[in-house]
Amino acid sequence: MSGYITGLDSRMVLDSRGRPTVEVDCYVDGSLLGRAIVPSGASTGAYEALELRDGDKTRYMGTGVDKAVGNVKTHLEEALVGLPVDQQNVIDEVMIELDGTPNKSKIGANAILGASMSCLHAGAALHELPLWKYIGGVAGGLMPVPMLNILNGGAHAASNVDVQEFMVMPHGFDSFQEGLRAGVECYHALRTELKKDGLLGGVGDEGGFAPNLPSNEDGLKYMVRAIEGAGYSTDDIGIALDVAATEFLKEDGYHMDGQVLSSESMVEMYEGWLDAYPILSIEDGFGEDDWRGWAAFTKANGHRVQSVGDDLFVTQSERLAQGIELGAANAMLVKLNQVGTVTETLEAMDLASTSGLRNVVSHRSGESEDVTIADLAVGTRAGQIKTGAPARSDRVAKYNQLLRIAEDVTDYRSPF
């Protein structure tokens, strides 16, 4: 095989919320070697690359992706045919230049990322390598500690809970398999605890339970009950939060638990939580432009909790560099579709790790059966992955892929 791209194909498929998204096929020397599905977020940061939607209200309530699909079949295929499929940085640079906008709004980040990911898969297939090994090279893989989102709130649930994700993080185990088992058992234990209290209802976008609660702190209490109810110690299983504070930040402050809080009050609230609960990680504890709040919290508490920038950094090196200079956070959330290409994602992850920040590979609330992020987490040795509850196939697919990879990769250690 010569290894040159001979064609791209694309189609609309559905994501886990029943919304259209983009799937791309990559042909090498006439054979289909790579396929990828692009995820979609609900609580999206203002600085994310643009997800191109049709806006035709008569079809899929305006969320169609025919324009993005068409852009793959015309502009991107024409630009990429003839390129070596295993030169990912060249492929991505060609697409970035072709689009020519700061946020990929001309061709669409969903079109570009679909092509980028499908070429990545094709490159791995060409070299007959598992995707994680193709990404990681000689460094070898590291199994990530999973963050399992077992209680949903915020934009991911129809409840009164402001905090978007309450996750269990089984960090005190000797293998990925044992850590995952513990997290799954906590999920089922939470179901039991909520049922006891008459709060068992539906689940949110990411498969976690979505009860109405008297306060956000009650979510933390249920997490502890779930961990202990499953027979574990909070020394071995901690709590990770995605507050998604941008979602409830208004002009006059943070609207949370029926109050309006300043950045300083948010810091004090988190410090109280850190004193009372086994919290290991807080993601997006402040708004995407509240650099002062971020820096104040991380300076005072970064030694005892992971402070993760998601909307703050949007997996983009320029935003990340600004955050590093200000000491705004000590970890970056990694979402491929926030920046729109594999290469830019890897560059941002490298900048984070070389600057002393941790990387947390993440799914989106609108997911699919695509498992690319499982291999990405292992191959880049990120050490952490958040990919939802152990429920619904769009989430479970990633855990199942990690279980397969764990048959070959035994290195598993806690970042805490």
Describe this structure in words.
The model has no long low-confidence stretch (mean pLDDT 96). The longest helix is centred in the middle third of the chain and has 21 residues, at 176-196. This protein is an alpha/beta fold and 416 residues long. The protein is globular. The protein has two domains: 5-128, 2-Layer Sandwich (Enolase-like, domain 1); 137-405, Enolase-like C-terminal domain (TIM Barrel), CATH 3.20.20. Helix content is 38%, strand content 18%. Helix 9 runs parallel beside helix 11.
List keywords for this structure.
single chain, 38% helix, three-stranded antiparallel beta sheet, TIM Barrel, 416 residues, Enolase-like, domain 1, alpha/beta, eight-stranded mixed β-barrel, 2 domains
Topology:
Layout lengths: L4 E10 L5 E9 L2 E7 L28 H15 L7 H12 L9 H18 L4 H6 L8 E8 L12 E6 L5 H21 L19 H14 L7 E6 L6 E2 L2 E4 L2 E3 L1 H14 L2 E5 L7 H11 L4 E4 L7 H10 L4 E4 L1 H4 L2 H13 L3 E5 L9 H8 L4 E3 L6 H13 L11
Parallel strand pairs: 4-14, 6-10, 10-11, 11-12, 12-13, 13-14
Antiparallel strand pairs: 1-2, 2-3, 4-5, 5-6, 7-8, 8-9
Helix pairs in contact: 1-2, 1-3, 2-3, 5-6, 7-8, 9-11, 12-13
Sum this structure up briefly:
The protein has 416 residues and is α/β, with parallel strands linked by helices. The chain contains 13 helices and 14 strands.
State the CATH topology of the largest domain. TIM Barrel
**Total DSSP E strands:** 14
Q: What is the topology, as strand order, of the major beta sheet?
A: 4-5-6-10-11-12-13-14
Mean pLDDT over all positions? 96
- Helix percentage: 25-40%
CATH superfamily of the largest domain: Enolase-like C-terminal domain
* Contiguous uncertain segments of 5+ residues: none
What fraction strand? 15-25%
The ordered string of helix (H) and strand (E) elements is EEEHHHHEEHHEEEEHEHEHEHHEHEH
